[in-house]
Design a protein that fits this description.
Strand content: 5-15%
Distance between the termini: 63 Å
Strand order of the largest sheet: 1-2
Order of helices and strands: EEEEHHHHHH
Helix content: 55-70%
Number of helices: 6
Length: 152
Amino acid sequence: MRYLGKDENGKKITTEMCFDKVQTRGRPKLVLNKLGVEILESLAQCQLTEEEIAAVFGVSIETLKSKNNIKTFSECKIKGEAYGKASLKRWQFERAKKGSDKMLIWLGKQYLGQKDKLDVAADAEQLDKLDEILSGMTALAEKDEDKGGGVQ
């Protein structure tokens, strides 16, 4: 049993409270209940992986993906992740509105197709030097090959 926090009344929430036990002939099956769904969505909002969510609940991934839970688990994970991403974007835009130059630049690149312009123009003298260096390297490589000293 793991402690997950407190509810609005100050009552402790444990992992056992997140599942209903359905009795079978063997070991009882754990089925996510309403509280489990709420906690699962909040964990997914933080972009936790399936492994991390299972660890928080103290169960295996197989338990969360069992036939009793797979539909609920998948829907909650998708919903929580989408809500978490929307919240992040909202916070980014709020930060940009407050004048964060870095956030304005990043959002411009993400949503407006803006990019940093790199000026890589070379003048004729630089190109001549580069050509001279490359020619010299080619000549050395050919000379080395003629002597039989190439890489094998």
